[in-house]
Amino acid sequence: MISGNEFFRQLLLEFPEIEKLMEFRFGAKFLLHIEMANFARFTQEAIYEGDFERVKKYITFVNEALPNVNPELDNAIYV
Questions:
Q1: Which residues pair with 20 in a beta bridge?
Q2: What is the pLDDT at residue 30?
Q3: Phi, psi torsion values for 69, nearest 5 degrees
Q4: pTM for the full model?
Q5: Label partner for 45 (CA 20 to 30 A): which of 25, 35, 36, 54?
Q6: Contact by Cβ (8 Å): 15, 58
Q7: DSSP characters over 36-54
């Protein structure tokens, strides 16, 4: 199962540009719902900018992870 830490590690490897809005730092206290809200905000920013290719990549990343996430991460995604 993919944990929140692993999800965001993979997300930042795939999309390093997201790091500018993330509070997550490896080794720091990790607040899953805060980071998910930051990711949602970053995705919303791409929508406002009309960068739908970027939006599609973000949504695809989440959709591909969903079948393998742990219950805590599942909750954070859907909240």
A1: none
A2: 67
A3: -85, 155
A4: 0.84
A5: 25
A6: yes
A7: HHHHHHHHHHHHHTT-HHH
Give the amino acid at 3. S
Q: What pLDDT is recorded for position 52?
A: 97
- The C-alpha atoms of residue 55 and residue 60 are separated, in whole angstroms, by 8
Handedness of CA 69, 41, 32, 75 (dihedral sign): negative
For the chain, how far is it from start to end, CA to CA, in angstroms? 19
Ordered mean pLDDT values, 10 residues apiece, the chain (79 residues)? 92 87 59 88 95 97 97 93
At 9, list the tokens. Answer: 């590690």
Nearest to 63 by CA among 21, 16, 11: 11
Q: Which amino acid is at 6?
A: E
Residue among 3, 70, 8 at smallest CA distance from 36: 8
